[in-house]
Amino acid sequence: MEKTKENRTRGALKRISGPVVTAVGLDAHMYDVVKIGNEELMGEVIKIQGENIIIQVYEDTAGIRPGEPVENTGLSLAVELGPGLLTSIYDGIQRPLEVLVDRMGNFIERGVSAPGLSHEKKWEFVPTAKAGDEVKAGDILGTVQETNIVHKVMVPPRTKSARIKEISGGSFTVDETICVLEDGTEITMLQRWPVRVPRPVKEKLNPDIPLITGQRILDGLFPIAKGGTAAIPGPFGSGKTVTQQQLAKWSDAEIVVYIGCGERGNEMTEVLTEFPELEDPKTGKPLMERTVLIANTSNMPVAAREASVYTGITIAEYFRDMGYDVSLMADSTSRWAEAMREISSRLEEMPGEEGYPAYLAARLSEFYERAGRVITLNGAGGSVSVIGAVSPPGGDFSEPVTQNTLRIVKVFWALDAKLSQRRHFPAINWLNSYSLYLDSLNDWYDREVSPEWNPLRAWAMGVLQKEAELQEIVQLVGSDALPDEEQVTIEVARMIREIFLQQNAYDAVDTFCPMSKQYDMMKAIKHFADLARTAQAAGATPQQVIGIKSKNELPQIKFIKDYEPELEKILKDMEAEFDAMRAV
Amino acid sequence: MKEYRTVAQIAGPLVFVEKTEPVGYSELVNIVTADGTVKRGQVLDTSDEIVVVQVFETTAGIGRDSGIRFTGETIKMPVGKDMLGRILSGGGKPIDGGPDIVPEKRLEITGAAINPYARAPPEDFIQTGISTIDGTNTLVRGQKLPIFSASGLPHNDVALQIARQAKVPGSTEEFAVVFAAMGITREEANYFMADFEKTGALERSVVFLNLADDPAVERTITPRLALTTAEYLAFDLGYHVLVILTDMTNYCEALRQIGAAREEVPGRRGYPGYMYTDLASIYERAGIIKGVKGSVTQIPILTMPGDDITHPIPDLTGYITEGQIVVNRELHRKGIYPPINVLPSLSRLMNLGIGEGHTREDHKKVSDQLYAAYAEGNDLRGLVAIVGKDALSERDRMFLEFADLFEDRFVRQGLYEDRAIEETLDLGWDLLSTLPEEQLVRIDRELIQKYHPKYRKKAQG
Q1: If both were cysteines, with which of A95, A360, A527, B447 could A356 make a disulfide (CB 3.0 to 4.6 Å apart)?
Q2: In terms of pLDDT, which residue wins out, B417 or B264?
Q3: A267 CB neighbour count, 10 Å cutoff
Q4: Contact by Cβ (8 Å): B188, B250
């Protein structure tokens, strides 16, 4: 072993305590990646205390002894970015799970490293820049048809601008040079980027375009903007996972990055088997072709879980830099926070609230701040929208992870176990949820949906709010005691809930509801409410109004693809019934 | 093997040893007391200065004069074909008077995580014969579905009934049962054993017993031994294995005890901050592997302290497992067996295992409708308590009656009553037929026409 004073890259283990180990005799910087023990397990420096270098290990440490060697790679934890990311399924430190199955069988053993991208596969590179062009960091040199998504090969960030000396199309691996700049810089299709550092952009933009998800309660009532942040908290069993999967399937982002962080193995498998089979509604190709999955199940090493969200968001930023809209789901950030807590407690750090480290809030906000709609270095527009799930223990929203998350995110979709018990899906509580993007998105809705939409939305929220107040009275005195008008309000609220808010994720048609249909549906309910009001003013009783038969057909609209004729018929019938009522 | 006599400190179940050669993390340790007894332990923390050993048995008799031997390997479980029908201690030693297990393999008890990519999605419906499970919270092969119970409730009966009746319709294979008891009383254990013997289930079972008076720390390895055995039976020998772990609350207490002895920073209610990860390393050991014949299905049982479902133990469990079956005191007081409250119960994998090709096409819709109607009826009970039954509308009264009927006929069944899934679903329809047809908003008209008793009778008559 060579040990010089200047550069000590090899040291020895001193202490092992679960996923945290201490090494001595080593020069290291924070977040350097190190190889631990004879089996060369992967780890990362997380604390330096005099001679003691404290390392979190991404693999199981059973059997490792003090005295075993530790080697510093001098690099920080980075991901490989380039063609081949799409359709991949990674663990928390970007090891492709498929390759791991080939290398070590059905169970995840330790000490196996596998690169994130295939270094053998050849990609057809088509240059779009030519020799003599002046290029700078972020500029697009050419394209690779990766799946149905065009992968844009960019000049890596931090590259000095220069003229292109040579650039050639053809078949290349990610390691081969595709372009040489005049200053001698050789560029390949592979970029390595440290996961804990945000990739640079030119400018961050305001969030004024909604991310359309096809979920009525989200698009209609609580929209998230492209580049926005949202939290889905939910006690277990409230349908959080289904909601997130619906978002991954249907949101109008070009690229989906899904991070299963501390997730259930079987549920991850459901995602892994379902995604490749799902058809992308826009292209007819498998949805997987525009997806990167990161699966770090709850029983995989805790330190890799801590890293998984960074791995995911770095990949998302890379696609954003090409000018794509990316949506990133992290399920669940609570598990990520718990991983931080676990490591922190092994470090014997002074704990903050509920044992979480004092830097919890800082880490959370750093992470969510990496979302945004941006002008990329090459002047294109791209976005990363982040949707994080939180799993408050005992459904207690006052716990630190939920609270710190809510201070950062702008949209809150409050999943409610009571609703899911009543089989109201998606079980998002319309009273507790909110979206702070409404104001900035108003213009878009006026322009793209209808100038009537914003008032319609406000009306629906008003009815639902009113219902909640009335329900309290009903609980005490029964519904008959309400004034006539209010009895109809209750009925209209019920219609909004059952027709508009409830949506069946498993129905082929209802699973995605375009904005125009949402508008038509809400308008139909409002139409009924207006007719009812007029009829009541003319003396109709609540029973008569509630007894209108044709409105009971409205829910069927949800399940019909070309619903317009049917809807028109129902509306006609409804008007006829009201007319008949007046005639009597 | 070198023996050290350098014990520096003993605190609770932990022994601190000084001046050792390098010792591996998580290594198995033998401790020899003055009278020659050998106790086992495991390395929890190792450094060149001090090694912390967690002792699985009582530390009585261990002193500064005790000899410490580090075995140089992590804890392994000898497994073999002849394990079925055997009764082992919580530490994995035969206690049925039979011979030692002839080991065909020695497996690490921590068990590596199944690569999510290698997993196959669980989708084979398991018929337990219990309507509240099969009908509304369906169990599928490879799932982990805990029973959340509380002291004084018949969760053991429910678990036994599941073990007795569980089958995959259309398959003749019986489940092999791995039963791990952690800190339960001798009486409870006898109850399980008697039932296993009576029904002949013992022949296809492996039983691990850590009883209430056995060392608490041993409980932390009992479920791991059981799951290692289960994985061997499933993935090496091709059995479909049902694992019953009871009582996980005792396991967590043991975890807390060790955490306290190590003077760790405690998390909620004194349980260690890593309890989620620790529990996950147990519960996640269930599933099916692509291209491999067997399966591991887990039914952990836990008692919720103070009937509190937000207590850290049920709470963290619920975040890892794929749903939960909640046993309810109120139903039990009403004399209803099995007292399963379907409202907070859930099976997350249900949709994978039901419907056409699995159970019956109407399963999901019937289940949703039953849930919704029962939830509504149940909510109205609160209202009745305030305003009286007379103040209810006719519609509300129907739902109120439905809730009673649901509990009395759908939930209630005999200890040995094994209902086929068709029976369960037809029973559901019978109950739903007490409501006006237009109230069945969650079921398509087609299915109503096909299965609603009104039309069924017409079709037959």
Answers
A1: A360
A2: B417
A3: 20
A4: no
Q: Find chain A residues with C-beta within 8 A of B117's C-beta.
A: 89, 97-98, 100-101, 272, 295
Phi–psi pair at B346, nearest 5 degrees: -165, 140
Q: How many CA atoms lie within 13 A of A525 on its CB side?
A: 29
DSSP states of B333-402: HTT-SS-EEEEEEEETTHHHH-STTTS-TTHHHHHHHHHHHHHHHHHHHHHHHHH-GGGS-HHHHHHHHH
Please count the helices (runs of H) and the strands (runs of E) in chain A: 15, 26
Percent pLDDT > 90 in chain B is 71
Contacts of A413 (CB under 8 A, 6+ apart): A217, A218, A222, A230, A231, A232, A243, A428, A433
Q: Is the pLDDT of residue B220 over 60?
A: yes
Place of tokens 């939830």: B375
- The answer, yes or no, to whether residue A288 has pLDDT greater than 90, is no
Q: Which of residues 248-307 of B touch A (CB under 8 A)?
A: 264-268, 273-274, 276-277, 280-281, 283-287, 289-290, 292
What does pTM read for this prediction? 0.87
**What is the average pLDDT value for chain B, to the nearest integer?**
92
Residue type at A370 in one-letter notation: R
CB B322 within 8 Å of CB A266? yes
CB contact under 8 A, A266 and B310: no
What are the tens digits of pLDDT across the range A502-527?
Answer: 999 888 889 899 999 999 999 999 99
Residue B87 confidence class, pLDDT cut points 50, 70, 90: very high
Residues 6 or more apart whose Cβ sits within 8 Å of residue A19:
A56, A57, A61, A301, A302, A303, A342, A343, A346
pLDDT at position B384 over 60: yes
Contact A468, A525 (CB under 8 A): no
Helix or strand holding residue A16 (H, E): strand A10-17
Report pLDDT digits (tens) over B294-318.
999 999 999 999 999 989 999 889 8
- Average pLDDT on B327-342 reads 96
Q: Is A113 left (phi over 0), alpha (psi -120 to 50) or beta?
A: beta
**Structure tokens belonging to residue A400:** 């630190």
- Judged on CB neighbours under 10 Å (0-12, 13-18, 19+), B452 is buried
- Which of helix, strand or coil describes residue A14? strand
Q: Can you give the pLDDT at residue B14?
A: 92
CA B442 to centroid of chain Cα atoms: 32
pLDDT tier for residue B170 given thresholds of 50, 70 and 90: confident
- Token pair, residue B398, equals 């129907």
Q: What is the mean pLDDT of residues B42-64?
A: 91
What values do phi and psi take at A183, rounded to 5?
-80, 10
Tell whether B211 is within 8 A of chain A (Cβ): no
Local structure of A247: helix, strand or coil: helix
- Tokens (6 digits) for A50: 């005099």
User: Shortest CB distance from B24 goes to which of A64, A348, A480?
Assistant: A64
Strand partners, A52: A49
- Lowest-confidence region among A131-135, A269-273, A306-310, B241-245: A269-273
